[in-house]
């Protein structure tokens, strides 16, 4: 992150010459600072190998720090994490989804202005000498975070809190390595057969292509689907797709304090028969409405990802993390990846990512935050990204991935990717959005359905200014 990160050190004068990597003859301060420390990172998706190069680099200057990564299955991770933190057996550093911030602020030690720790320094030209120096290092500021990362990271990772003297302060509670975005996977053979030369760039073209690509039998059962969307039970991340449509349609998802506003008519939206959030919901559910020309999907279809993998649906809105799943399950499938369709206004995409944060109960908070900053610097982050084949979160690395066949589409979307605050109970908020889809499909008035969903989401909200 931060190319100038190491230039921000404020060096103290406590230096001890070492024998090898030991601390013989060191001052009490050096001896205490270089006592062996173990940092444990908890997360999902990655193995220890993904961080191996970064850990090796960090230990060159901090040989007294051992770093290990523990991988969990996605379905078990949050429960294990919450229980471990409550029982004081949790990790020093853990991965936190960008939508979890509201529910985790009381479990996090925010990034302090300065971290204090010892670093091994090698000096001399002919006779090399090793010495530990105690450093008081300035940490990343909100301005530096804003400069290095997309705007959505600042909205998610910076929390306004009250200090003991009653003033407000902005604090960083996490830093990402990668940002994923929704994109359009498309089956080349099926689009070719339908005479469609390129994937749709707008939702209007998407509708037209869906009509061309959908095939039914004599009993009107769907034999080939144009796209796997319209419902929620068998569409992975249906609430993200709906949120993307809402935001592209001009919906303001929340106010400045995080309270839901997607049921409202935004200022300056002109004469509309329906609020944009309700319009977007109708647009989405039309694909699963048998009375509509764009009908292409229903709850009897398989999971949308499975349908795409088996060639039964032509288009699938998904994330980069699903790419290796598709490649592994269907190595002969001819498919492409295109940017998410747009609604005609300013480009907007949907962000889905994880932040690395430090537990309030860690006994090595300064070292833990120093490692998080080191890991998310552009020099080190690129090693993780190359090992995992994930899209970057850093502005400085976007161009490096822009022409990559697998990552280019996703990397090019991160600067326009947005998300929205879902309070302290993300599961409850997402269930409210899923039920919104079901209610409209069941025939409820769209405005009534979005009103109900907004009221339910509001019950999960902790005001951002008081977290």
Helix proportion of residues, in percent?
A: 25-40%
Shape: globular
Number of helices: 18
| Tally of DSSP β-strands | 16
Please give the radius of gyration in angstroms.
25 Å
Question: What's the N-to-C terminus distance?
Answer: 26 Å
Ranges where pLDDT stays below 50 over 5 or more residues in a row are 4-23
The CATH architecture of the largest domain is 3-Layer(aba) Sandwich
Number of domains: 2
CATH superfamily of the largest domain: Periplasmic binding protein-like II
* Largest beta-sheet details: 6 strands, mixed
Derived structural class: alpha/beta
Q: At the third CATH level, what is the topology name of the largest domain?
A: D-Maltodextrin-Binding Protein, domain 2
Could you report the average pLDDT, rounded to the nearest whole number?
Answer: 91
Beta-strand share of residues: 15-25%
CATH top-level class of the largest domain: Alpha Beta
Textual characterization of the structure:
The protein is an alpha/beta fold. The protein folds into 2 domains: 5-177 and 355-399, D-Maltodextrin-Binding Protein, domain 2, CATH 3.40.190; 181-352 and 411-466, D-Maltodextrin-Binding Protein, domain 2, CATH 3.40.190. It is 34% helix and 22% strand.
């Amino acid at each position: 992150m931060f190319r100038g990160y190491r230039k921000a050190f404020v060096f103290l004068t406590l230096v001890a010459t070492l024998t090898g990597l030991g601390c013989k003859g060191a001052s009490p301060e050096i001896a205490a600072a270089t006592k062996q420390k173990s940092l444990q990172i908890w997360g999902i998706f990655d193995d220890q190998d993904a961080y191996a190069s970064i850990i090796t680099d960090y230990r060159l200057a901090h040989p007294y720090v051992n770093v290990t990564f523990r991988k969990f299955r996605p379905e078990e991770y949050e429960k294990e994490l919450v229980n471990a933190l409550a029982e004081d057996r949790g990790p020093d550093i853990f991965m936190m989804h960008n939508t979890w911030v509201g529910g985790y602020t009381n479990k996090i030690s925010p990034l302090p202005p300065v971290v204090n720790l010892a670093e091994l320094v090698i000096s001399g030209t002919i006779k090399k000498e090793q010495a530990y120096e105690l450093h008081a290092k300035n940490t990343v500021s909100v301005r530096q975070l804003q400069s290095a990362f997309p705007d959505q990271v600042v909205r998610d990772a910076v929390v306004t809190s009250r200090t003991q003297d009653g003033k407000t302060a902005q604090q960083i509670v996490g830093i990402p390595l990668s940002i994923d975005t929704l994109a359009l996977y498309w089956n080349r053979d099926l689009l070719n057969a339908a005479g469609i030369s390129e994937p749709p760039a707008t939702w209007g073209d998407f509708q037209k292509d869906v009509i061309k690509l959908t095939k039914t039998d004599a009993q009107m059962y769907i034999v080939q689907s144009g796209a796997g969307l319209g419902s929620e039970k068998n569409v992975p991340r249906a609430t993200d797709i709906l949120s993307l449509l809402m935001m592209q349609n001009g919906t303001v998802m929340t106010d400045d304090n995080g309270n839901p506003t997607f049921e409202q008519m935004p200022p300056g939206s002109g004469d509309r028969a329906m609020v944009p959030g309700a319009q977007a919901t109708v647009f989405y559910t039309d694909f699963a409405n048998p009375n509509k020309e764009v009908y292409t999907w229903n709850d009897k279809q398989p999971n949308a990802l499975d349908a795409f993998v088996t060639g039964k649906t032509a288009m699938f809105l998904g994330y980069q993390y699903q790419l290796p799943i598709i490649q592994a399950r269907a190595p002969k499938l001819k498919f492409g990846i295109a940017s998410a369709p747009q609604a005609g206004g300013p480009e907007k995409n949907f962000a889905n990512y994880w932040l690395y944060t430090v537990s309030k109960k860690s006994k090595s908070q300064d070292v833990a935050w120093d490692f998080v900053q080191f890991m998310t610097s552009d020099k080190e982050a690129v090693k993780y990204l190359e090992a995992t084949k994930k899209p970057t979160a850093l502005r400085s690395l976007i161009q490096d991935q822009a022409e990559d066949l697998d990552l280019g589409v996703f990397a090019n979307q991160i600067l326009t990717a947005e998300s929205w605050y879902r309070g302290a109970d993300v599961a409850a908020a997402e269930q409210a959005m899923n039920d919104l889809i079901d209610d409209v499909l069941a025939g409820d008035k769209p405005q009534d359905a979005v009103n109900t969903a907004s009221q339910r989401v509001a019950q999960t909200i902790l005001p951002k200014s008081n977290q």
